Structure to design on (512 residues):
């Protein structure tokens, strides 16, 4: 697919390719794919096909996935005048742009399609970072080289552009090129194998790859070409192309990616975390300032990912709650929607994340809380309805989630977010909640008796919500709450004994 302007307009005002060696290309037309053979099926899945604009004003380019959220490509793909790529403004692209990732054969239905949400351009070369609206998590990003290219070095150049015989190819193509000269921001290349290969329209932004052991790394991006032999190009005896260097941009790329992640994290609301032993992954969930659910993870201790959006378009309030179910090896995330309903999204190794599902037409306030009861193999969720009634749903043995039901008499009302604790010594659940009278109440579940009546834990008064923890070293269940005077208070239950009274954290517990 060609750029949307006629060829005569593209040729005017061309950029020089810098002062390279005598073998370098010095004046070229913007390359807007590689006329070479097709790679093996599945190879170079990080290559990205970019479709920019609508049917009347459309252009196609190539890029590379370098992060689950980020594609690197040529700025000239987005410029009003491709010969002046450094004029591309930061922010959303002027024309709707979609990225197809992981589909080197466009006739198949594999891969992922994402919208481009934001551009971060360089001002010194034909290069831009394009942020995806939602991440691609099933494709390994391409690593960016950190050593400079050298004259005489071979690079594998790839792209989705036209070939010698195809106007709009359906497959990625690649060819081997040799570097003829290097300058501070770019390099000149000439075809090596096949000897008549060329960089054609649609290849702009495509990755030039350096072989590094058993994998490839990104050394440069396609920028401009003489398009010798490309279908529809004017006859010329000139060959070769000019590439934009990327090896010296590692710090800038990391800064751009990290800056966006930091903004997302800074805007986030309450968080919840879980460890998934099935995948050896620590996971954290939070609400962004616009209410979108975001997610980050650390697998095998190899470092934290960036933030990902779960369910584009869904918006929530409060804090999310997440539970790992070892029976099904799934994660269930619950959150209160802006309409007051509680929604659930489920992750499994086989299917990834499901869409958000409304749990029922009940309405809630505040945030839900979750627990897994290994004694009954039950995942459980607790939340307050809009009138303050404590409600509960559960999933036993992975047989599906129940509907909501009320714990205790419906005339008992609470505020804030409840806290739930499984005690493995007694195989019980202890549920704590702050009453509308500011007293802290507890209800206990056991297999023998079910849920007890609500019991006031003492005469102390609390504001906000309690939190709980079980200490396996001392076999102690613990609950914490902030008194209305701001003091942190604490109650404990050691082994199978009774709960203590409240005490200020750091003081000896007392009764009452």
């Amino acid at each position: 697919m060609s750029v949307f302007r006629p060829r005569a307009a593209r040729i005017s005002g061309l950029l020089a390719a810098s002062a390279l060696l005598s073998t370098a290309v010095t004046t070229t037309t913007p390359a807007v794919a590689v006329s070479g053979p097709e790679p093996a099926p599945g190879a170079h899945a990080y290559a990205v096909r970019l479709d920019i604009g609508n049917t009347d004003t459309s252009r196609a380019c190539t890029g590379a996935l370098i992060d689950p959220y980020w594609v690197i490509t040529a700025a000239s793909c987005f410029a009003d005048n491709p010969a002046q790529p450094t004029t591309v403004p930061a922010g959303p692209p002027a024309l709707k742009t979609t990225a197809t990732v992981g589909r080197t054969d466009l006739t198949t239905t594999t891969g992922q399609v994402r919208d481009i949400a934001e551009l971060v351009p360089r001002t010194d070369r034909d290069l831009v970072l394009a942020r995806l609206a939602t991440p691609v998590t099933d494709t390994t990003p391409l690593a960016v080289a950190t050593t400079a290219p050298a004259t005489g070095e071979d690079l594998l150049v790839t792209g989705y552009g036209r070939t010698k015989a195809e106007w709009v190819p359906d497959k990625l193509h690649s060819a081997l090129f040799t570097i003829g000269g290097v300058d501070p921001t770019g390099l000149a290349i000439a075809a090596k194998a096949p000897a008549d290969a060329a960089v054609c329209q649609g290849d702009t932004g495509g990755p030039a790859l350096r072989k590094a052991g058993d994998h490839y790394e990104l050394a440069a991006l396609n920028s401009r070409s003489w398009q010798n032999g490309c279908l529809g190009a004017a006859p010329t005896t000139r060959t070769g192309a000019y590439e934009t260097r990327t090896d010296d941009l590692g710090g800038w790329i990391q800064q751009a990616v990290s800056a966006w992640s930091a903004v997302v994290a800074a805007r986030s609301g309450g968080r919840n975390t879980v460890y998934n032993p099935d995948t050896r992954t620590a996971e954290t969930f939070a609400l962004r300032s616009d209410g979108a659910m975001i997610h980050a993870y650390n697998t095998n201790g190899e470092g934290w990912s960036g933030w990902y959006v779960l369910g584009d378009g869904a918006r929530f309030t409060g804090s999310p709650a997440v539970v790992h179910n070892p029976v099904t090896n799934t994660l269930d995330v619950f959150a209160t929607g802006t309409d007051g309903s509680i929604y659930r999204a489920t992750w499994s190794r086989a299917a990834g994340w499901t869409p958000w599902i409304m749990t029922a037409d009940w309405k809630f306030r505040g945030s839900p809380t979750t627990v897994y009861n290994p004694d009954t193999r039950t995942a459980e969720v607790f939340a307050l309805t809009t009138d303050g009634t404590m409600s509960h749903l559960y999933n036993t043995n992975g047989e599906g989630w129940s509907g909501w039901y009320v714990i205790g008499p419906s005339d008992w009302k609470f505020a804030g977010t409840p806290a739930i604790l499984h005690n493995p010594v007694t195989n019980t659940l202890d549920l704590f909640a702050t009453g509308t009278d500011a007293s802290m109440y507890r209800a206990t579940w056991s297999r023998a008796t079910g849920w007890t009546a609500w019991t006031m834990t003492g005469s102390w008064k609390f504001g906000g919500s309690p939190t709980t923890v079980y200490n396996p070293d001392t076999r102690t269940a613990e609950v914490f709450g902030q008194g209305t005077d701001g003091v942190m208070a604490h109650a404990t239950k050691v082994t199978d004994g009774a709960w203590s009274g409240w005490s200020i954290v750091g003081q000896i517990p007392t009764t009452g």
Remarks:
- Residues 269 and 287 are 5 Å apart (CA to CA).
